[in-house]
Amino acid sequence: MNALTPIIQAPIQEMEEQQYLTFILSGQTYAISILPIKEIIQYGQLTEVPRMPNFIRGVINLRGAVVPVIDLSARFGKALTSIGRRNCIIIIEVVSGAKNQNIGVMVDAVNAVLEIPANEIEPTPTFGTNIRADFIAGMGKIKDKFVIILDIQRVLSMDDMATLAAVKGE
Questions:
Q1: How far, in Å, CA of 128 to CA of 133, rounded?
Q2: Residue 23, domain member (yes or no)
Q3: Residue 6 falls within a domain, yes or no?
Q4: What CATH code is carried by the domain that includes residue 25?
Q5: What are the start-end ranges of the E strands in the chain?
Q6: Could you tell me the residue range of the domain that residue 145 belongs to?
Q7: What confidence tens digit (pLDDT) does each residue in 69-108 have?
């Protein structure tokens, strides 16, 4: 009987508010769950790596570890992000097979951490977005506006990015 307890409690946890980091990218507000976020750093000290696809801006040295930096705008098929004083790199831990890897995501500016109740999150739209539908976890309602909540594990899928890099390298 105790084995059923986690199954019964899971829906209750889903109904609780979750915290999301909101940020600006190409004039649009996006959000990602704070759970995989390790830290947010100022953009700088990027080392370019030759023959990489355009969405990989380079690597940074984060306390002795090499961390690739993804330009999220270019990852969505848009123009490269122009560098300004508000640019940030969000360090995210991505599950890749049996191991985890830190990846930096370059954005125009970070806004705030907000709590969005589950009942304020609408399903992924089937049309009208300019990014792949499988990248979107839902649409959060914040003060009568919608924020695109990203499925960051899908956006930063190592297999997907490796496939794209191989195709662009041909």
A1: 10
A2: yes
A3: no
A4: 2.40.50.180
A5: 18-25, 28-33, 37-42, 56-62, 65-71, 88-96, 99-107, 109-116, 121-122, 136-142, 145-150
A6: 18-164
A7: 999 999 888 899 989 999 999 999 998 777 888 999 999 9
